[in-house]
Amino acid sequence: MTPGTRPPIDNRKDGRIDVVVHFGFAVLMVASGVRYVMRHSPADNLWTVALAAAVCVLYAATAVLARRGRSQKQWLPWMVALLAAWSALVVVAPSFAWCSFAIFFLSRSAFRGWPAYVAGGATAAATAVGLFRMSEWTDVAMLLGPLAAGALLTLIYDKIERDAALQRRLLAEVSRTQEQLAASERAAGVAAERGRVSREIHDTVTQGLASSLLMLEAAQRSWPQPSSLDELSKATGLLRRNLADTRSLVHELSAPGLETGPLAEALEHAARQYVPSVTVHVTGDPGRVPPEVRHALLRVTQSAAANIGLHAQAEHASVTLGYLPGAVTLDVFDDGRGFDPSAVPSPSEAGGYGLRAMRQRIEQLGGLLSVESTPGEGTIVAAQLPLPPASNQPYAAAKGTP
Question: DSSP 3-state assignment of 349?
Fold first, then answer.
């Protein structure tokens, strides 16, 4: 928008105000014209009515330009002509003085800055002169009244404009803030989604490939002994399951048995992909577990079991699923060589994402995860997640069975 250009009127309330002002001007002009014609001779009526008609035409042209949001340079000739014609009309025929209010508001709409004050002042001065003349130059109130009213209207109009400008600035700031917030939320959503996909890939594809690689390397070392065939068979089976997990990851990152069926069986299936001898225990009364909690427990079990198969060299491993009032717990134990949790290296291209991914999964759902391990004394990965009140009832009761 170029400087000096007034934005087009697009607010319905502003449009209604303009309509009321223009309608009031038309009504007052007709009423004032009728009053003047009835009180003056035909000789006086002709020129005065012609001047009033010219004022009406100039007013309509200026109002149309205002409605279309034309620049101030385009307004200037029409507004100057209107003010000149109006000043002559109100001085010659003070009966038209009531129309000054519409002229004032139109001039303030047409101009910004000092031209607006000049136009408003000229309107008030012409009205004052006309009314003072009508009093035969004797009533000072007729002279000062329009000037005081013009000054008061100017102050009120300026206050309204300042408040409107402030409101527009505030709305613009709110809009910018909302856009920035939306951009931040989008960036946070992208980061969260990348983290989620990273954890899914780590807990399924990466762990499965790493375990398969160890089995293949063991088969290579024992080749051509019969045990190598067993290692190859295990690696093939794990790769097939890994392929199924990859396809599930592509299709909405779902997992077999996650949405339905007993949770303990799903955990056992996930753990035995990496530790075939693992045992699963359940304590407490099984209840319904929300899908997101089931998913987190399944992935934590997969990741912990994969670590046992890859690093622990354990003879025994177990998974314990516990149901508490308002919570569910998971403990993954092995009697392997253990490690120092404080000495775990930072994640890198070589690995190190497992514990961090498990902790993020649990904490995002409002739970807690702890890792207890000592070199040579095994490891316990313990997680606890809260359950909504509806999940506290036993699984059989939740299904509606007696």
Answer: coil
pLDDT at residue 201 greater than cutoff 60: yes
Q: Are strands 317-324 and 279-283 parallel, antiparallel or unpaired?
A: parallel
Residue 376 pLDDT > 80, yes or no?
Answer: yes
Number of neighbours of residue 85 by Cβ within 10 angstroms: 19
Give residue 260's Cα distance to chain centre.
35
CATH code at 360?
A: 3.30.565.10
Rounded Cα distance between 22 and 122, Å, is 20
**Cα separation, 320 vs 315, whole angstroms:** 17
With respect to residue 384, please indicate whether it lies within any of the assigned structural domains. yes
* 3-class secondary-structure state, position 137: coil
The model's pTM? 0.43
The total number of structural domains in the chain stands at 2
Which of 158-172, 214-228, 246-260, 361-375 tops mean pLDDT?
Answer: 361-375
**Cα–Cα dist 149/142, whole Å:** 11
Number of Cβ within 10 Å of residue 97's Cβ equals 22
Q: What's the CA gap between 185 and 196, in Å, rounded?
A: 16
- Host domain of residue 123: 12-138
